[in-house]
Amino acid sequence: MARIAGVDIPDNKRGEVALTYIYGIGRTRANKILSEADVDRNIKAKDWNDDQMAAIREAVGQFRLEGELRSEVQLNIKRLQDIGCYRGIRHRIGLPLRGQQTKNNARTRRGKKKTIANKKK
How many CB atoms are located within 10 Å of the residue 93 CB? Predict the structure, then answer.
């Protein structure tokens, strides 16, 4: 099992898909990395030789990934919360922040339904 940027890359997946197991690398960036490293994207990760692995590691090293990227995202969210802007407030109370409606949907952000009993008459 190959290890790149502190993440175990699955052997039985194509190179393009295997690199997406690293936080911060999607399909587009994986293709860019493989083309920079001059590796065919359809070759499975277990078939990469040592030279290809070194080239991929070097290409991956140019990007901010994993823990560094996660901490940067958290710092950005904390900054929004500290200045008290609309997006920061929505982050703080756990509601959608990109203009989505919350009357009927938004269950992923709001969590499981909490039934409130009717007022007695």
Answer: 9
Q: Rounded to two decimals, what is the model's pTM? A: 0.77
Each residue's pLDDT expressed in tens, for the chain with a length of 121 residues: 788 888 899 989 999 999 999 999 999 999 999 999 999 989 998 899 999 999 999 999 999 998 899 999 999 999 999 999 999 999 999 999 999 888 888 888 888 888 888 777 6
Would you say the C-alpha torsion 97, 100, 104, 108 has a positive or negative sign? Answer: negative
Domains of the chain: 2-60 (1.10.8.50), 66-110 (4.10.910.10)
> How many H-runs (helices) and E-runs (strands) does the chain carry?
6, 2
Question: In whole angstroms, what is the distance from residue 57 CA to residue 65 CA?
Answer: 12
Q: For the chain, where are the alpha helices, taking DSSP H only?
A: 15-18, 27-36, 50-60, 66-83, 86-93, 107-110
Q: Which two tokens stand for residue 39?
A: 């590796």
